[in-house]
Amino acid sequence: MASASVNQTDDRQLQTTDASFCWKTTHTRGVGQVPVSCAAGQERLGLLCYDKCPVGMTRKGLDCHSNCPAGFADQGLFCRNTEYGRGFGYPWKFGDWLNDSGMYQRCQKDHGQGKCENWGWVVYPKCLPGYTSFGCCICRPTIPDCEALGLGGRVDLSCAKKITIGTPYLGTCAANEERDAGLCYPKCKPKHTGLGPVCWGRPPPSWVNCGMGAAKTTFDCITAIKDQILSVGELVLNIVTGFAASSAKVLKGPRLRAYRT
Length: 261
Prior knowledge:
Layout: H1 5-8, E1 14-18, E2 21-24, E3 26-28, E4 42-45, E5 48-51, E6 57-60, E7 63-66, E8 73-75, E9 78-80, E10 84-85, H2 101-111, E11 116-119, E12 122-125, E13 131-134, E14 138-141, E15 154-155, E16 158-160, E17 163-164, E18 177-180, E19 183-186, E20 192-195, E21 198-201, E22 208-210, E23 213-215, H3 218-240
């Protein structure tokens, strides 16, 4: 039979009942709290933490989307190097010579010498540098190099934004706390293990965990549990029969003995 010194050397973490089985000591540590802090480089959104968006990206909901370069129109999931219209132009007017001189005169008065061109029967201002005419009235920019701009694939003049899907993280607990099942609890006393709001004493060296107790061996654990189950069943039977089944039998689970120093 093991001596009481086995438990004495383990800071009285177990309450002795039998040489081969002991109940674990416990203490409560209050109700768990939802973590309120986030790790460095994270920000809080709702009850969870997310990595901050890198430079060049902006948060949209829970995800990070590329910012559109200067001069590009933000069109949701795309950035477009947009076209622009150059108006209705300068058509021939009654009183002009029977040529395009009057049309050019009016266009150059508004846009400057050498900055107009003829398209069909109408004179238009030339497209700005980096743009080419498309039909009579539209100026289209050069095809963008989406990869060089740090964007995704190209569709015509549009570049797809890069999107980083937000990964949720649980918050962090204070230095004197530990996280269990997503909640923060005060740390347990030394040589105790937390499970929710309760801290349980650890078994002595070489002993095995046995539910709310500890046993010297696995066989001892099975035996103790079996005795407890049979004892409860016998008690229920006695209650149902008005103790007619046995006038002397009592609950035979491991008896809790006071621990003496």
